[in-house]
Amino acid sequence: MHIDQASTVELSQRLSELEQQHQAFIDLQLTLDLTRGKPSSAQLDLSNGLLDTVNADNFNNDHNIDPRNYGVLDGLPAAKDLFGSILSVTETDIQQRVFVGGNSSLTLMHYTVWFAFHFGLKIGDQAWASQVADGEPIKMLCPCPGYDRHFSLCAQFGIEMIPVALTGKGPDMDQVEALVKADSSIKGIWCVPRFANPTGEVYSEETVTRLAGLGKIAGDNFLVLWDNAYAVHSLNDKAKPLASIDAAAKSQGTLDHVVQFGSSSKITFAGAGIGYLSSSEANVEGFTRNFGMATIGSDKINQLRHVRFLKDLDGVRQHMAKHAAIINPKFAAVTASLETHIKDTGMGRWSNPEGGYFVSFETLPGLAKTVVSLAAEAGVKLTPAGATFPNGNDPQDCNIRLAPTFPELEDVETAMAVFVNCVQLASIQQKIPS
Across residues 379-407, what is the average pLDDT? Predict the structure, then answer.
């Protein structure tokens, strides 16, 4: 039944059925959670062998570095080789242009913005804060819907966030280029380029090339903050590849304007993975110098574990195929529920990602908060409506991020039964308000 083609009588009858079903869900006293993109216990179990790869008899590595000691601030050479390959950095550049840290890429993003804001990222750079007039804010472009932690990081620094539309192939580059040309106080753009959070889209090669070129038309010290969190997280072998922004920036002479980030948090252990970044040699040198004010070195034993367990890029891909086998049925359950109950009703639309951790759902305008509230009544927690926009403000109040990886498959199916009922209920209530 399409909501715009049904009669008032049909809608009223359907509304009564949905209200009864909603109450039945409430009576079940469910406690289900689709809020965060966390790996399940079964996924974490895939990496238990990591714990056995280093012991008191074999802690040395090929470079004769004792990982138990201080030093090697920028990461073990073998760890650079492994994680740099995920970011498509060429072998000849990896040791100079990759930094391997502790367990969080978000920490590295925070430090990058902090250093750029207060000191300048590379040696000799001006700080962002010194490049704008008193009282004028630093600004950041934020493709939306996007990753809430990028937005909260900007908010902490008082950075003004400018929403940018997504096209299905990445940010609207005509809009992006016009904005950075017109305003030198815009100092960066956040990007989740492959299986974007939450839309699941993969940036096109043209988009990647144009993003790599922004350093030539933007103000001083502009940064493309390339959070490639899902670089190897495809759900199938035919998933769209991502063009290398490293290669594009090299060809355009803009490596100083691109900082890539990655993490093994959704490859191995979410709480004990490895965060890493790559950029120009000068940026990495400056980052390392500044980072050295906070620590003498990250956990190199954990870096060594990861190198021995994952081995190389082929090893990573084989390992991620095991992840895909676990989470594919959960994404299929989400799609099946939406196809069965929402398709051809005019009540919403959704993404069909080929990888990553999320499905993006758009309600009719003005209903996301209502749907999230109704789901909470029925015992299903969803990411707060608006979280995928700067300052929690979704101007259309329509985007909801669904995260199906953590719950068991049966729980995903139950949660989706509640969700689609809530979507239909809210949509018809809006159509025929009491």
Answer: 97
Say how many Å lie between the first and final Cα of the chain, rounded.
20
Exposure string of 340-366, with b = 16+ CB inside 10 Å and e = fewer, is ebbeebbbbebbebbbbbbbbbbbbee
The model's pTM is: 0.96
pLDDT of residue 386: 96
In the chain, domain spans: 8-43+318-431, 61-311
Contact criterion met (CB below 8 Å) for 354 and 239: yes
Q: Tokens 């809009």 — which residue? A: 175
Fold of 61-311: Aspartate Aminotransferase; domain 2 (3.40.640)
Q: What angle do CA 95, 97, 99 make, to 5 degrees?
A: 80
**Domain 8-43+318-431 in CATH: superfamily?**
Aspartate Aminotransferase, domain 1 (3.90.1150.10)
Quickly count: other Cβ atoms within 10 Å of residue 280's Cβ. 21
Contact 180, 223 (CB under 8 A): no
